[in-house]
Specification:
197 residues, alpha+beta
Length: 197
């Protein structure tokens, strides 16, 4: 080991790491897990910092495609939150609210406010119109409904901010493409992107 590596010239690790890896959810499901953690202690990145980073990652994954956010629980709190902030939303089914996100700022607010919840994001041209079949299924089955619908979208993502985890279901976004899309978005946060074995 060189003295430079041992002395004050040692390289410092970036504060955050984004692990991107393919997941095995069965033969018919193509999924990639994204885990955002503090590099040193491997704890999930939560709160304001986590919300800021995720709100840049997900629009970067969508690219030029529009995206929406799906909630299927705690709907009264979601409605009230959207009303007080002037965020556009619609009742999609008995127990499903769809929020048409206009970008990173609204997404950051949602990640911060609902950090303890599990919610979904869909991206692609199909979000321009209501998907009654999927939205009805979300109302009944929660985000498991994405497994039968994600092929119609660029991606469907299950977001679990408290755990620092997002599961991306997509026919076209494999780990290397996800890394290519998100690298510029997370650069300003000094996030190390890795593909664990």
């Amino acid at each position: 080991m060189s003295t430079q590596a041992m002395g004050s010239g040692a390289l410092e690790l970036p504060p955050y790491s984004l692990d991107v890896q393919a997941m095995d959810l069965g033969n018919d499901v193509k999924a990639v897990g994204l885990e955002l953690v503090e590099t040193e202690n491997r704890e999930p990145v939560r709160g304001k910092e986590g919300a800021e980073i995720w709100s840049e990652i997900l629009p970067a994954l969508a690219g030029q495609d529009a995206f929406v956010v799906d909630f299927f629980s705690h709907l009264d709190r979601v409605r009230e939150f959207c009303k007080t902030r002037g965020i556009a939303w619609r009742e999609a089914a008995e127990r499903c609210i769809v929020i048409s996100s206009s970008g990173a700022e609204e997404l950051q607010q949602l990640f911060e406010r609902f950090k303890g919840e599990t919610f979904g994001i869909r991206a692609g041209s199909a979000v321009q119109t209501a998907d009654a079949a999927l939205e009805g299924d979300l109302s009944k089955r929660g985000l498991d409904a994405y497994q039968h619908a994600y092929a119609r979208y660029t991606f469907c993502a299950v977001c679990e901010p408290e755990d620092g985890w997002v599961t991306v279901l997509s026919e076209t976004l494999w780990p290397s493409e996800i890394i290519r899309r998100v690298r510029p978005a997370v650069h300003k946060f000094d996030v190390h992107i890795a593909r664990p074995n």
